[in-house]
Amino acid sequence: MLCADCGVIESIRVAEVKGQGSGVGAVAGGVAGGLIGNQIGHGSGRTLATIAGAAGGAYAGNAIEKNVKKHTVYRVTLRMEDGSLRTLSQREAPAYAVGDRVRVSNGRITERA
């Protein structure tokens, strides 16, 4: 009888994942960019520089925030008993190695009983 949640680890890959932007980086970057842009030009040129600075600063601030919040994940690929492949991502290094027979329980890899 097949165990629907049982399989063998085929591979373990390490990957870097960018974090989610909360908006704080975009707001801070937009304010800083707007202030810098406001220092450039006169009249309508100053307005355009302020807008461009705010937009560029917001984009850069958001990208910086995502980069600061990046983290490592481990992508574990399992060959399930029914022959299908299943990939799980987890933040901590797996306690198992390629070739180990395991079970998936609540989205986590556990020892096979």
Commentary on this structure:
This protein has 113 residues and is of the alpha+beta class. The protein folds into two domains: 6-18 and 70-111; 24-68, no CATH class. It has two helices and five strands, in the order βααββββ. A five-stranded antiparallel β-sheet has the order 3-2-1-4-5, with no helix packed on it. Helix 1 (24-38) packs antiparallel against helix 2 (44-68).
Tell me the structural class. alpha+beta
C-alpha termini separation:
15 Å
Roughly what percent helix? Answer: 25-40%
Low-confidence stretches: none
Supply the number of helical segments. Answer: 2
Which terms would index this structure?
5 strands, 2 domains, single chain, rod-shaped, 113 residues, 2 helices, 5-stranded antiparallel β-sheet, alpha+beta
Short summary:
This protein has 113 residues and is of the alpha+beta class. The protein is 35% helix and 33% strand.
Task: Please render the helix and strand layout as text.
Blueprint: E1 6-17, H1 24-38, H2 44-68, E2 71-80, E3 85-90, E4 101-105, E5 108-111
